[in-house]
Amino acid sequence: MPMFKPREANTDRAEPFNNGPCPDCRVHNKWCFCDKFPQLKSKTPVHFLMYHREWFLTTSSVYFAHKILLDSELQFRGKKDVTPDVQRMKPENYTPLYLYPDEEAVELTPEFLANLAAPPSLIIPDGSWRQVKRFKRRVPGLSSVQSVKLPPGPLSEWHLRTSPRSDGVCTFEALARALSIIEGPEIEDSMMEFFRIMVNRFLIVRKGKEYAKDKTQLQDSTQNHRHCR
Ligand SMILES: [Zn+2]
């Protein structure tokens, strides 16, 4: 099936800003934060498996994780007549791990990682609790992949949707934490720096600019697009 590389839409945008939402960061052009997108490379292969309708939710955290992790891949689940290709989620010479706190999940710790025969790659399911629970049962070849869960950590900073995950963080945060355990804290720091800007922009759009934490950034952004509203 075709792979989706939506980040290509982010380059070389010659069209002037208009009053609609930005097609890339999905907020009103006035608050566009495309210039804040980092370009990150994880050492760990990351493969998103997303319930297809999630893609169209403006606050899909995986949409953004996929955009900023340059080498990540994404496939959809739940589309009619399309079966995800599990082989693509299991790159050679890696141990695939399914990041989801289901009943079989073991805690992702340095000790656990030290005992793996090959370095880990991550499969990141995304959808409602119910949808994601079905992924492992219904996607052929996925049930044999070891599930992993995060050790207890700080509270979520995601205030936009209720988390379907029992560990209480959104998928973006879960991935950032998992990568930190596997690779060290730098990648989590870069991801979360962007995450905070993103959450803040969504809050401003929903609730008004008094939610802006960094007024300077917003002023810059507004000046750039002053023809908007
Ligand atoms: Zn944008």
Structure notes:
The N and C termini lie far apart (about 40 Å). The protein has one domain. The protein has 7 helices and 6 strands, in the order βαβαββαβαβααα. The radius of gyration is 18 Å and the shape is globular. With about 230 residues, it is an alpha/beta fold. A 6-stranded parallel β-sheet has the order 2-1-5-3-6-4. The longest helix has 23 residues. Helix 5 packs antiparallel against helix 6. The structure holds zinc ion. Zinc ion binds next to loops.
Summarize the structure in short.
The chain has 7 helices and 6 strands, in the order βαβαββαβαβααα. With 229 residues, the chain is of the alpha/beta class.
Annotation keywords:
229 residues; alpha/beta; 6-stranded parallel beta sheet; 7 helices; 13% strand; disordered N terminus; disordered C terminus; binds zinc ion
Instruction: Tell me the strand order in the biggest sheet.
Output: 2-1-5-3-6-4
The major β-sheet equals: 6 strands, parallel
Count of DSSP H/I helices:
7
Distinct small molecules bound, one entry per kind: zinc ion
> Which spans have pLDDT < 50 for at least 5 consecutive residues?
1-17, 216-229
Number of strands: 6
Q: How does the overall form come out from the CA principal axes?
A: globular
Q: How far do the termini sit from each other? A: 41 Å
Q: Could you give the order of the helices and strands?
A: EHEHEEHEHEHHH
Which value, in Å, is the CA radius of gyration?
Answer: 18 Å
Mean pLDDT: 83
